[in-house]
Amino acid sequence: MRACLVEVIGVQPSRTKVKRRKAFSERGELARSSNALFPLALGESIGDEMGAKSVDLTRGALPGSAKAVGRTTQEGKPTARQSNENRAVPNDRRKAVSPKEVKHPGIGKVVPVNEQAIQLALPFETVEESAQAEPMAEMDHQPRWSESCVDPKSEDKYEYAELVTMESATSFLAMAFQKVASNKGAAGPDGRSIEEVRKHLPKLLPKLTKELLRGTYQPGNIRRVWIPKGGGGQRGLGIPNVVDRGVAEAIRMLLEPLYEPSFHEQSHGFRPGRSCHTAIAQAKGIMEEGYEWVVDIDLEKFFDRVNHQRLMARLAERVKDRRLLVLIGRMLKVGVVMPDGVVVSNEEGVPQGGPLSPLLSNIVLDELDAELARRGHRFVRYADDCNIYVRSERAGIRTMTSIKAFIERRLRLKVNEKKSAVAHPDERHFLGFRLRRDPLEGEIEVLLSKRSKERLAVRIQELTPRGWGKSLRECIRQVNGYVVGWIEFFGICTTGEEMTLHALDAHIRRRLRAIQLKHWKTKRTAVIRLIRLGVNTKTAWGSVYGGRKSIWALSHCAAVDRGLRNAYFAERGLVSVLDRWRLKQPVIVAPGPQPVAPG
Questions:
Q1: What is the 3-state secondary structure (H, E, C) of 346-412?
Q2: Tens of pLDDT, residues 457-493
Q3: DSSP H or E run through 160
């Protein structure tokens, strides 16, 4: 091979790239013309396996040429090359490899001698030029590495990616506005309500479609609203304008089918067909396999710390319509109107409260899911709450250290060290629940977390104040509204919480008794009403007037418990939490007698 090159270029080839470039520039062979052709004759002296070959190479097709480097000096000499450009073909001293291991020279693999002519004919280009290069399929010689290195993609996914355009997004606008109207959200900074926008929707849609297709649509600012967090502090929500919410919902409806199939199966937050219940069920299944230590990772202010550059780079991998990317970028950069009217710029984070933010958060954290799966961890993630299950405390500490470094260095997010820990699952709060292995039966129990019980007690106290000024039935109606929704979520608790639910029913009834006694105002009136409800006269007078008792103390005395019994509140429509929970439990039917076989 070296003898052949001597005949072609007329100079002894050097061992290093720098010396070869210097030899080329001194002779001026490459500086004559950009269209100069060099016949490369590979004679029979190279090996018995190769015949005489001749390949026409332009000036930019040889390694070390100006085109290969991509930049030249004023004298026409090539500039210094990057580490990943124009890698030299290994000489015959290297260890021979089989043709199955043939790789593109840019990947740095050795190439057999009988295919070096094809390799030299390939275009060498910089990283910047590779994005504008023509597809490799148009070349006469298709390299073998292209079939093995390309990530497999389903045809359906590829076909749908071609449909993700601004034209497709505008076709979802009418449906998106119906979805926004069904949520009954508040108005944004412009003050326009959903009803006002709905009246002008027939005239608004054509104008909005035209601006979106032209790329001139500018989303408005978002309104900041602070709501209390369960663990203390406040959470900031961003409320966009109604029109902006409709546009964001249309984009979400377009992008969700593109990203949803590729999300990890252990991610449950803000995904169709998944919920907190599916996350708890999967965590329960992992614990049944013996993973009884949890690495509880909580991301601090996740929605406010999402890096815009990384997010847009992830979107650009699949979304090819630049108008969509520009529009999403504008939505991320809109100003935030604070409660005092000051507009604050937004350099990072996604507006928590918009229709598009849940999908964007899953796109960001999908990289974390892929890393956890690559390491072989058993985990469950719901939005920014991630639980990694391990077999020992030592493994949990090691996992916490490595994953924390990945999150902060790679994802550019921050782990909340106060809320993150390595502990047993029954000591941690995950989506309102805690998991524990029953010490007697060995089954995994789903129990209420301490924080959930505290929130429930506070809410019941707020719904049943001692100074309730309306009727008792109205108070019961409000309590029912909260209790029914609460049991729909926490109804997946196992039998370990049956006594807790029974105590909750008793506590609600006692608070309602205190309200009823407060409505009766005097003790004399209370005694008369209790006697009418069937309480013994002596018992009623003795219980109510027996010592100085407060309203709360009277609400649990014998006469009041007998007069305002459970049926009294059931007749007025009070829902029993325990009865609702029992209806949600699977019904176990005892097997009947086995039929006797004849004969």
A1: CCCCCCECECCHHHHHHHHHHHHHHHHHHCCCEEEEECCEEEEEECCHHHHHHHHHHHHHHHHHCCC
A2: 999 999 999 889 899 999 999 999 999 999 999 999 9
A3: helix 155-163
Q: Counting Cβ atoms within 10 Å, is residue 433 exposed (0-12), middle (13-18) or buried (19+)?
A: buried
Instruction: Tell me if residue 496 falls in helix, strand or coil.
Output: helix
CA angle 161, 163, 167 (to 5 degrees): 140
Helix (H/G/I), strand (E/B), else coil: 91: coil
pLDDT range class, residue 588, cuts 50, 70, 90:
very low
Nearest to 558 by CA among 571, 567, 550, 546: 546
Lookup result for tokens 């229709």: 355
Tokens of 428: 């941690």
Angstrom CA distances, 222 to 50, 187, 214, 234, 584, stand at 69, 10, 23, 18, 41
Single-letter code of the amino acid located at 284: K
By the 8 A CB rule, do 337 and 222 touch?
A: yes
Sorted by sequence, the CB contacts under 8 Å of residue 118 that are 6+ apart come out as 141, 143
Which secondary structure element, helix H or strand E, spans residue 563, and what is its range? helix 558-563
CB 172 within 8 A of CB 253: yes
DSSP for residue 267: B
Rg (CA), the chain: 36
